[in-house]
Specification:
Blueprint: H1 12-19, E1 26-29, H2 43-51, E2 56-59
Parallel strand pairs: 1-2
Helix pairs in contact: 1-2
Length: 63
């Protein structure tokens, strides 16, 4: 499996959605506030889930 990274100067959501066009999977983090708020996605992960051209995996912290 090959993992790549890239530095860009643009908004996070737009950049990740653009990159998703050539990706097999997009992995993003979640803020994970804990409790009820922890069940909600942040704005970037929400936009990626809604608009990415590939499957999106949202990773939450263990805490």
């Amino acid at each position: 499996m090959r993992v790549s990274y890239r530095a860009v100067h643009s908004s996070a959501a737009k950049s990740l959605i653009d990159i998703s066009r050539n990706a097999r999977m997009l992995v993003v983090g979640s803020r994970g506030h804990g409790g009820l708020a922890g069940m909600l996605l942040g704005s970037v992960s929400d936009q990626c889930v809604r608009h990415a051209a590939c499957p999106v995996l949202v990773v939450r912290s263990r805490s």
